[in-house]
Automatic annotation (TrEMBL):
<dbReference type="InterPro" id="IPR023214">
    <property type="entry name" value="HAD_sf"/>
</dbReference>
<dbReference type="InterPro" id="IPR036412">
    <property type="entry name" value="HAD-like_sf"/>
</dbReference>
<protein>
    <recommendedName>
        <fullName>Trehalose 6-phosphate phosphatase</fullName>
        <ecNumber>3.1.3.12</ecNumber>
    </recommendedName>
</protein>
<dbReference type="GO" id="GO:0046872">
    <property type="term" value="F:metal ion binding"/>
</dbReference>
<keyword id="KW-0378">Hydrolase</keyword>
<dbReference type="GO" id="GO:0005992">
    <property type="term" value="P:trehalose biosynthetic process"/>
</dbReference>
<keyword id="KW-0460">Magnesium</keyword>
<dbReference type="InterPro" id="IPR003337">
    <property type="entry name" value="Trehalose_PPase"/>
</dbReference>
<dbReference type="Pfam" id="PF02358">
    <property type="entry name" value="Trehalose_PPase"/>
</dbReference>
<comment type="pathway">
    <text>Glycan biosynthesis; trehalose biosynthesis.</text>
</comment>
<comment type="function">
    <text>Removes the phosphate from trehalose 6-phosphate to produce free trehalose.</text>
</comment>
<keyword id="KW-0479">Metal-binding</keyword>
<comment type="similarity">
    <text>Belongs to the trehalose phosphatase family.</text>
</comment>
<dbReference type="GO" id="GO:0004805">
    <property type="term" value="F:trehalose-phosphatase activity"/>
</dbReference>
<dbReference type="InterPro" id="IPR044651">
    <property type="entry name" value="OTSB-like"/>
</dbReference>
Length: 277
């Protein structure tokens, strides 16, 4: 069971603080929607809470200042969004690593601002067009739903619909995809998230993204905070008792610690700055 840490207690949570302080090479990896930003009706309207945005800028500066030192602190955003969308809504600093599309897109600070376009194979392009057509048909029969078009996936959003209508739309989409004639769905990864169903043409996970980040940074302690079901694969890839896993908000989790929501994140980031600056 994860331990709830309320902001006022961070300083007394000696174990959490000690791991962050004692790490030689620390990496702070944060999910975006539901962690850095509160969840909102439209994906394009999501933004970091002002206090979080300010502290992320400070952590990005800390990353720049310590990168060549014996005790670096690295920062990464690890999102289900594609990197092009993440750059717009998260406005990441120049010294941050970016993991987009649930681990399928990987950028170091040096490559983060290069062309975000991901080359798709012809087969992926065709498959994405096919699943998108299916989801468009479902969406047209599901008032209140809408689609989000991403580099490697299409997402059916049901936020704002009634609970029954929303689960009906998701089931309809799953059935329609499963009954596609003559199309192999081996290349499709279906991901359930918070009031979304995503059909991706790349198989990747946040766990793979975090393993890549550890290789890139040589971090001996990695803090990962996330709110969604896809973040559980990230928690699973980390080392119990050495790394720090933080579930943001309610819901089942394998994370060791839990905070109430995005509004509690600034206190955690401030603790990181206090023990690492
Ligand atoms: O890994 P994340 O950075 O948390 O991205 C996961 C998905 O986030 C977005 O959807 C969620 O946030 C939306 C805006 O707050 C909300 O409307 C939606 O209901 C949430 O599921 C994003 O739109 C997806 O593409 C990401 O995969």
């Amino acid at each position: 069971m994860s331990r709830v840490v309320v902001p006022e207690n961070f300083r007394r949570e000696s174990e959490l603080g000690a791991r962050l302080q004692n790490a030689e090479r620390l990496l702070i990896a944060l999910d975006f929607d539901g962690t850095i930003s509160p969840l909102v009706a439209r994906p394009e309207d999501a933004r970091a809470l002002p206090a979080t945005a300010r502290l992320l800028r400070k952590l990005d500066e800390l990353a720049a200042a310590t990168v060549a030192s014996a005790r670096p602190t690295f920062l990464a955003l690890v999102s289900g969004r594609d990197i092009a969308s993440l750059q717009v809504v998260a406005e990441p600093g120049e010294h941050s690593f970016l993991v987009g599309s649930h681990g399928a897109e990987l950028r170091t600070p040096v490559t983060a601002n290069l062309d975000p376009a991901v080359p798709l194979t012809e087969a992926q392009r065709e498959l994405l067009a096919t699943v998108t057509e299916v989801l468009e048909s479902v969406q047209s029969k599901s008032p209140g739903s809408f689609l989000e078009y991403k580099t490697l996936s299409t997402v059916l959003h049901t936020r704002g619909m009634g609970t029954e209508e929303a689960s009906g739309a998701v089931v309809m989409a799953e059935k329609a995809l499963a009954s596609l004639n003559g199309v192999s769905l081996n290349g499709v990864s279906l991901k359930h998230g918070k009031e979304i169903l995503e059909a991706a043409v790349a198989h990747s996970s946040k766990g793979e993204g975090l393993i890549w980040l550890r290789e890139q940074t040589g971090a001996d302690c990695l803090l990962f905070a996330g709110d969604d079901v896809t973040d559980e694969q990230g928690f699973a890839a980390l080392k119990a008792g050495q790394d720090v896993t933080v579930k943001v908000g309610s819901g089942e989790t394998i994370a060791e610690f839990r905070i109430y929501g995005p509004e509690s994140l600034p206190a955690l980031l401030q603790l990181v700055l206090d023990v690492r600056s």
